[in-house]
Design goal:
heterodimer, A: about 325 residues, mainly alpha, two-stranded antiparallel ribbon, about 75% helix, B: about 300 residues, MetI-like fold, 11 helices, 2 strands, elongated
Chain lengths: ~325, ~300
């Protein structure tokens, strides 16, 4: 176990290092970094002074080490647009993204599992076939397209729900959240549904497959023979056994929710870090882009590691020692 | 004929080929299997029409949407069915710059499909070579390659594309590179999986015993036999690539404005949608949807037909 964790950590460090080289090369090597990092208003003397202070006159490997040393101290540069440290700017936007991602995950569990069970228990009914057809659509439609359609129908044509923004927020443990106010909740509905759609489809398919497998097991037949109420069989005997793999996979998908929130946040003008990165790329705000990429990749590595470890705890059949490091 | 064919024929006789299909060529059998699903056939013809439109766009478009001499700003945002200043009827309306939507979509399809196909093809070649090498040589080569593949697949495609485009910048070449990087791992994993199974079969052993070169064994004996799963993954991946390109262009980090794909057209229309001018965004959206769904329908059917486990 500990050998496995050490191996995984080493691998994680390697990935972060590779990422930092890629990002460094992308931002500081392509084109003249002086043009990107120094504003056009600076005169020649000012420019020279900045080049020296930014270390752009040093050899490449020295520049990289400098970048790395600063990054390790949490200094990923200062945003040109907001004139704030890039790291703080992103941490500031992170709660909005996490709120959206968690809401979407909740929707996937609340809708995906019951629908999937229904489709698994009554595979030939019309409702099940519609559910499965819906899940295929959910997989193949691009998120941004669905988002536009949702806005078109519910915000423009019906006028039921707001089309963008976060609405009124309330402070919870020092963080602004939307789900505590009615207005905020209304703003949260459409983006959360949009982001959740892919994961609902996934949950439906996993649950359906799991249900169909479990339903033929001996212990379910035995429960039936014992004369238990069908509701009890489904809710206790079947549900309990399909829940673990479904929840694990959905947990694994949490990272991809954060990645896909880039799309949903742009469509719904949700002020999270996904919208920030797109705005920053378009405004050539390089330090923010660098900070976002580094933070997201680190987040992913941590999520993947946690999920792998949790998986081994939840399912004793998975032995980490056997996994080739 | 090659040794493969001979060996296969021998194997076929030994396994007693099903009697009913003896007079059919494999391709005929494949076609009739495929045609059993009406939805898949509809998907295939839908896709065929889309491809034809994309290829013939410059000749069948009512107007040339990028010829500045004929585009008139006075025509901008006309609803569907109105006539433009030149007298041409804009059946699906015009966009914010006065371009006919039908023509813009035809040209957009051309770019979307072109980018999807080009990136898919290169990724396929890279993935096939890497996957075959991994399965054929095994050992350390295999371990290293599969580690990289696993690692890449643990990140969502959109994040990898975002990293690349944020560092490389906009452009057709850049987005094709990004899509190649995103896709090759899927192909590599698929090819390796089925090549490992094929590699342990007798005909490969026989070919190796004959002293054939590595190249010949890999490309003439292994490759043809790993094609079926590859075709399935390939179709699905092209649909993914088109959707991903549309998403990235919609976000404004994919193709430049001079190269408007469907995603960019949708993005352009998005700002007008709030004021009820739905057609600028909706029609390219429908075109994108039809493209993706018809490719997926074909892919789904191919998976059923080509999967030996489901063969009747």
């Amino acid at each position: 176990m500990s050998v496995y964790i050490i191996r995984r950590l080493l691998q994680a460090v390697l990935v972060v290092a590779a990422m930092s080289v890629l990002v460094f090369a992308g931002v500081f090597m392509i084109g003249d970094p002086a043009d990107i990092l120094i504003s056009d208003d600076a005169d020649q003397a000012e420019r020279q002074r900045l080049i020296e202070s930014l270390g752009l006159d040093l050899p490449v490997h020295m520049q990289y080490l400098r970048f790395l040393a600063k990054a390790l101290q949490g200094d990923l540069g200062t945003s040109f647009v907001f004139n704030e440290p890039a790291l703080l700017l992103i941490l500031d936007r992170m709660p909005a993204t996490l709120e959206l991602a968690f809401s979407a995950l909740l929707l996937a569990v609340v809708f995906g599992i019951p629908l999937g069970m229904w489709a698994g228990l009554k595979p030939d009914s019309l409702a099940s076939k519609s559910i499965m057809a819906g899940s295929i659509l959910g997989f193949s439609l691009p998120t941004f397209w669905v988002g536009i359609m949702i806005i078109m129908i519910f915000a423009v044509m019906l006028g039921w729900l707001p089309s963008g923004g976060r609405g009124t927020t309330r402070e919870l443990f020092g963080i602004d959240v939307s789900f505590l106010t009615v207005d905020g909740l209304l703003h949260l509905v459409l983006p959360a549904v949009n982001l959740a759609l892919l994961k609902i489809s996934l949950a439906v398919r996993l649950t359906r497959a799991g249900t169909r497998e479990v339903i033929h097991q001996d212990y379910v037949k035995f429960a039936r023979a014992k004369g238990l109420h069908p509701r009890r069989i489904v809710l206790v005997h079947v549900l309990k056994n399909i829940l673990i793999p479904v929840i694990t996979v959905l947990g694994l998908e949490f990272g991809s929710l954060i990645a896909f929130s880039v799309v949903t946040e742009t469509v719904f003008a949700w002020p999270g870090m996904g919208k920030l990165i797109i705005d920053s790329i378009n405004q050539l705000d390089r330090p923010v882009v660098v900070a976002y990429l580094m933070i997201t990749v680190c987040m992913f590595i941590v999520i993947n590691l946690i999920v792998d470890l949790l998986y081994s705890l939840l399912d004793p059949r998975v032995r980490l020692q056997d996994v080739k490091g | 004929m090659t040794a493969t064919a001979d060996v296969k024929e021998l194997k076929g006789v030994a396994a007693e080929a099903p009697l009913a299909v003896k007079d059919q060529t494999p391709f005929r059998r494949f076609l009739s299997d495929f045609a059993e699903s009406k939805v898949a056939v509809a998907g295939f013809f839908g896709f065929l029409i889309i491809v034809l439109i994309a290829i013939l766009a410059p000749w069948i478009s009512p107007t040339n949407p990028y010829d500045l001499a004929t585009v008139d700003i006075l025509d901008s945002r006309l609803p569907p069915g109105e006539s433009m200043m030149t007298g041409t009827v804009a059946w699906l309306g015009t966009d914010g710059l006065g371009r006919d939507m039908v023509s813009a979509m035809f040209y957009g399809l051309r770019i979307s499909l072109g980018v999807g196909a080009a990136s898919g093809l290169v990724a396929l070649c890279i993935g096939v070579c890497v996957g075959l090498a991994s399965a054929y040589f095994g050992g350390r080569v295999d371990t290293v390659i599969m580690r990289i593949v696993d690692l890449q697949l643990s990140f969502p495609a959109i994040l990898i594309a975002l990293v690349l485009l944020a560092t490389l910048g906009k452009g057709v070449d850049k987005i094709i590179i990004a899509l190649i990087v995103v896709q090759w791992a899927y192909y590599a994993r698929t090819v390796r999986g089925s090549a490992l199974v094929e590699r342990s079969k007798e005909y490969v052993e026989a070919a190796m015993c004959l002293g054939l070169s590595h190249n010949r064994v890999v490309f003439r004996h292994l490759l043809p036999n790993v094609m079926p799963p590859l075709i399935v993954v390939g179709t699905v991946q092209v649909a993914h690539a088109i959707a991903l390109e549309a998403t990235l262009s919609f976000l404004g980090i994919g193709l430049p404005v001079t190269e408007p794909s469907l995603g960019l057209l949708i993005s352009n229309g998005f700002e007008y949608m709030m004021s009820g001018k739905y057609w600028i965004s909706i029609f390219p959206g429908v075109a994108l949807l039809v493209t993706i769904v018809s490719i997926n329908l074909v892919g789904d059917r191919l998976r059923d037909v080509l999967n030996p486990r489901l063969a009747r």
